[in-house]
């Protein structure tokens, strides 16, 4: 008699192999479909937020805006600052 061939694995290897318990068995099962986390490109540099973010509505600094937080279950509203008045449009003479 010759050597026996190793059994073909039906499932992929998971981090939960060899861990006892129902939870680990459930995780082993779901790992076959979900796989590893999709984290993106390893060589992509980390996101650096801008020092002075701009408003997507008016384009001015967000530090000039007012945020009204409604509380639990209520919406938050952003209030843009008033536009600066142009001095050439009437007003004072001189």
From TrEMBL:
<feature type="compositionally biased region" description="Basic and acidic residues">
    <location>
        <begin position="84"/>
        <end position="94"/>
    </location>
</feature>
<feature type="region of interest" description="Disordered">
    <location>
        <begin position="66"/>
        <end position="94"/>
    </location>
</feature>
<protein>
    <submittedName>
        <fullName>Uncharacterized protein</fullName>
    </submittedName>
</protein>
């Amino acid at each position: 008699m010759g050597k026996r061939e190793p059994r073909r694995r039906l499932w992929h290897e998971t981090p939960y192999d060899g861990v006892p318990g129902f939870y680990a068995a459930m995780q082993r099962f779901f790992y076959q479909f979900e796989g590893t986390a999709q984290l993106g490109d390893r060589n992509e540099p980390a996101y650096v937020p801008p020092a002075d973010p701009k408003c997507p509505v008016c384009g001015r600094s967000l530090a000039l805006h007012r945020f009204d937080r409604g509380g639990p279950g209520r919406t938050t509203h952003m209030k843009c600052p008033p536009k600066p008045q142009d001095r050439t449009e009437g007003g004072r003479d001189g």
